[in-house]
Amino acid sequence: MEAALSGAAHAGVDALTAPMPGTVTVVKVAPGDEVTAGQSLLVVEAMKMEHVISAPHAGTVTELNVTPGTTVAMDQVLAVVTPAEEDAS
């Protein structure tokens, strides 16, 4: 629950959330990693299906709240990606 609540504090960045309850099976990034738009970051398995969580845009992983084997709730914040260009007005 704590990770889900922390997502509200991330205005202006993109919090990547779990699409449904499940288990994180793969983590491909670490905090500080530069990512490209569409890059696969995490895999969540639910009901024997794998859901790939991808970067919504180019940027930096500024928060990572899970490791492989972590059980997650629907809409729980898994990671946060800060956009590469923060001066967009």
Main β-sheet description: 4 strands, antiparallel
> How much strand?
35-45%
What overall form do the CA principal axes indicate? elongated
Succession of helices and strands = HEEEEEEEE
Which bin fits the share of residues in helices?
A: under 10%
CA-atom Rg in angstroms: 12 Å
Quickly count the helices: 1
The parts where pLDDT drops under 50 for at least 5 residues are 1-11
Q: What is the domain tally?
A: 1
Indicate the topology.
Layout: H1 2-6, E1 14-17, E2 22-27, E3 34-35, E4 40-46, E5 49-54, E6 59-64, E7 71-72, E8 77-83
Antiparallel strand pairs: 1-8, 2-4, 2-7, 3-6, 4-5, 6-8
What are the salient characteristics of this protein?
four-stranded antiparallel β-sheet, disordered N terminus, elongated, 89 residues, mainly beta
Q: Would you give an account of this structure?
A:
The protein has about 90 residues and is mainly beta. The longest helix is centred in the N-terminal third of the chain and has 5 residues. It starts with a helix and ends in a 6-residue tail after the last strand. Helix content is about 5%, strand content about 45%. The strands form two sheets. A four-stranded antiparallel β-sheet has the order 1-8-6-3. Strands 5-4-2-7 form a four-stranded antiparallel β-sheet, with no helix packed on it. The N terminus is likely disordered. β4 and β5 form a beta hairpin. It has one domain: RNA polymerase II/Efflux pump adaptor protein, barrel-sandwich hybrid domain (OB fold (Dihydrolipoamide Acetyltransferase, E2P), Beta Barrel). The radius of gyration is 12 Å and the shape is elongated. This is Acetyl-COA carboxylase. InterPro entries: Biotin_BS (IPR001882), Biotin_Carboxyl_Carrier/Decarb (IPR050709), Biotin_lipoyl (IPR000089), Single_hybrid_motif (IPR011053). Keywords: Biotin.
